[in-house]
Amino acid sequence: MPELVITVTPELIVVNGSDPLLMYSRSGWTSTSRKIVEESEVDGTRELHDLRSSRGTSTPGTISFGYNGSCIQVYGSLDGAADDKTANWACYVDGNRIKGSIAPRIFAKPSRICDGAHATVSNGPHIFTLVVNSVPRNRTFWLDWLSYAPSIGVSREDFSTLLLPHNSAISYHRTWLPHDEDSAKPTAAGSTLTVGFTGTSASWYWTVPQTSAPSVGQATYSVDGAPTVFTRTTDITSSTPEFEAEPRLLKTTQLGSPSDSPPLTLSRITVESRAVPSSTATPIANPYYISGALYKHLMVIFGSVLGGALGIFVIGLMVACYFWSRKERRVIDEQPLVTLRRASPNVTAPNFVP
Q: Any transmembrane segments, and where (predicted)?
């Protein structure tokens, strides 16, 4: 039986498909709060996946994202009627194409569509671009999220941090096993996992195996040893309340055995480093609100535009001064030559009578 291999993984920043930092250059993109069911090709079981905050398109389009870091990985999905056709896409960093991980006919759950882990990408500012060249008819190509390793010194306060199941920050009870390349699953009742984090809140995402009848996985969680909170995973995504940004310890426990209750397969954990607006607030978003990260990006763009305009103005002023000085020199050169003579000492100046 395969073991769950834990590796020392660099801290990753995660950006959801609906994040305002992503620049969608063409129309046709739409947001979603959908959930999908995927049937396993191995044992025929079905899994429910939470795909909130995704952005999808049924037509060609591009997405650009500026980041300060190194390797980047992109997760997407393709839904619709299964056929022999698939979407065609490509990923680039600073104009250099990076590896596309998969090209199946249909991949309903979030899958790694671009893998820059082994690309030669140095630490520093980069521009990532996803180009969707074509999407089959009656299908939708979704960008679910992307993650990257930030450069040293990059502030995490305006971003969410991603912890994948094999991250060394997560401690598993021995009853956990790998489910696939990007998830882990418990094999017995009472299976636990713990993770330490520093942030204002944490969320963890499950996939729930489905049978012919809808099934609901169950688990509990506690933070810093506080009373356990019961969780029904009908929403698949579980989240802690908001805290002060201090070190915390999250512990989750699976309820029931796989024979009588569907196991909750861990997909990923995200940690928020910024305060999340309360769900009890007015549902109408403030149109004048700009997040800190977006504000910084807008200021960079504004500074670039202002600097360019100022540079053009200075160059124009220098050119104008140059032509003005040439004109003045030409006027002086065209004036008649005047000879000044010293007055003779014997010449008496005339007297004028007022």
A: 298-324
Element (H, E) at 156: none
Strand residues in 211-289 grouped as ranges (E): 218-223, 229-232, 237-239, 246-254, 265-272
What's the residue count for the chain?
Answer: 354
Tokens 């598993």 correspond to what residue?
Answer: 172
Per-residue b/e over 277-289, b at no fewer than 16 CB within 10 Å? eeeeeeeeeeeee
DSSP string, 303-328: HHHHHHHHHHHHHHHHHHHHHHHHHH
CA distance 217 to 213: 13
Both tokens of residue 37? 């069911």
**Are 233 and 216 within 8 A, CB to CB?**
yes
Per-residue pLDDT band at 194 (split at 50, 70, 90): very high
Residue type at 156 in one-letter notation: R
Q: What is the pLDDT of residues 133-179, one digit of tens each?
A: 988 888 888 888 888 988 888 877 777 888 888 888 888 887 888 87
From 51, 97, 98, 96, select the one nearest 76 (Cα to Cα): 51
- Asked if 49 and 93 count as a contact pair (C-beta separation under 8 A), the reply is no
Task: Report how far apart the first and last C-alpha atoms of the chain are (Å, whole number).
Answer: 126
What is the pTM for the complete model shown? 0.61
Alpha-carbon span 162 to 164, nearest angstrom: 6
Matching residue, tokens 């090709």: 41
Q: How far apart are CA 151 and CA 124, in angstroms?
A: 6
The DSSP H or E segment spanning 194 is strand 192-199
Q: What is the dihedral of CA 93, 95, 98, 100, to 10 degrees?
A: 110
| Confidence check: pLDDT of 278 > 60 | no
Q: Tell me, what DSSP letter sits at residue 322?
A: H
Across all residues in the chain, what is the average pLDDT?
71
Residue located via tokens 């194409």: 97
179: CB partners within 8 A, 6+ apart: 185, 265
φ, ψ of residue 212 to 5 degrees: the values are -60, -30
Strand pairing class (246-254; 192-199)? antiparallel
